[in-house]
Amino acid sequence: MKLLLSGRALTAGAVAVATLVTGGSAAGAATAPAHPVADGTAAAAPDIPIANVKAHLSQLQSIATANGGNRAHGRAGYQASLNYVKAKLDAAGFTTRVQQFTASGRTGYNLIADWPGGDVNQVVMAGSHLDSVTSGPGINDNGSGSSAVLETALAVARADYRPTKHLRFAWWGAEELGLVGSRSYVNSLGSAERAKISGYLNFDMIGSPNPGYFVYDDDPTIEKTFKDYYAGLGIPTEIETEGDGRSDHAPFKNAGVPVGGLFSGADYRKTSAQAAKWGGTVGQPFDRCYHSSCDTTANIDATALDRNSDAIAYAVWELSQ
């Protein structure tokens, strides 16, 4: 999640969009049967294996460690992170493309992955920013969202899920410089293409070590989907306010696309009322390592990451049928 303007100046540079299309290989595509729907009932979302999500986080940590301690825009760690995610998706049977842009004098990249099938006039998107700040590896911000979205996409492939709507997943570059990657993507779409996106789901920081359970309140249908999921677990939620306008849902919302998402908190401090609902430490930030070098794999609450990962899959399945 990017800092507020008061935290630092944002530099985006001139955005020059060029799309490089590479077809995802069908080799290694999952062949598991789809969920039974012979009786007309909707397919159920799978449980997302938390071990798989944590394995992706470990890979992102290793990438950062090998590349100067970060995965920031324009740096080798970001390119390696994108290559890691892309390889997983290509092997699972997605069609991937890399979108190029320029920010702060450096070339940046978005990764877009489409699952074959579904009505391309009704697109459900889920996305996360893949870049970190330069000061740390960015494992909660935002390896957590990126890894959970990746594992949800791989679950789609394992299930050979065939929803009514078309599924698209995205990993954004240069979010930390002012939502540059996601804005370049939205700006590259004509009005007709934007209108085909029935919903964009954003996941930025979902494994905070002193977590809260926050739901975006931008679109009523998407908001209700997430709230229903957590109600089923008996976990109260709150409306997300800390990140308003500070993550990659903002360009979509500004373009008239329905948006929603989840958040576990950044540098705001947990109140006594919140601790009573969710546990954790009163008066401490939701993430004390926000934008710091200590945002490593040790900076993750596995329970929050597990619940939020399952919630992502639940929403993707519910909203795409």
User: Which of globular, elongated, flat, extended, rod-shaped describes the shape?
Assistant: globular
Number of strands: 9
Strand/helix succession: EHHEEEHEHHEEHEHEHH
**Helix-residue proportion:** 25-40%
Detail the poorly predicted runs.
5-40
* Gyration radius, rounded: 18 Å
Mean pLDDT, to the nearest integer, reads 90
Give the termini separation. 30 Å
- The neighbouring-strand order within the major sheet is 1-2-3-5-4-6-9-7-8
Describe the sheet with the most strands. 9 strands, mixed
Structural class, judged by helices and strands?
A: alpha/beta
Total of DSSP H or I helical runs spanning 4+ residues? 9
Work out the strand percent. 15-25%
